[in-house]
Amino acid sequence: MSKDILNVVKKKTGKSVTPKDIEKLASGVKPSTLQSETQLRQLIKQVSGLVNVKVSEETINDIVQAVKSSKLDTNNMQQLMNMMMGKK
Description:
Blueprint (H helix, E strand, L loop, with lengths): L2 H11 L5 H8 L4 H5 L1 H15 L5 H13 L7 H9 L3
Helix pairs in contact: 4-5
């Protein structure tokens, strides 16, 4: 687990998250999770709960639309992590 990811989470949310927290959450994520709107919404809510930051329904809709309209290879988790961290 890259410390960069943990630092980004802390910087964006003000909350500390352990590698175990992220690994536990990530263990249930499959490429199909990002293809299913229901599963993607559930994942967003799980992440929100992990960092204890409320996410509005409008923001969830925006995230779902961004993931669905992106050209991400859902089998390439590094590409997804880079997108989430704002890297190209």
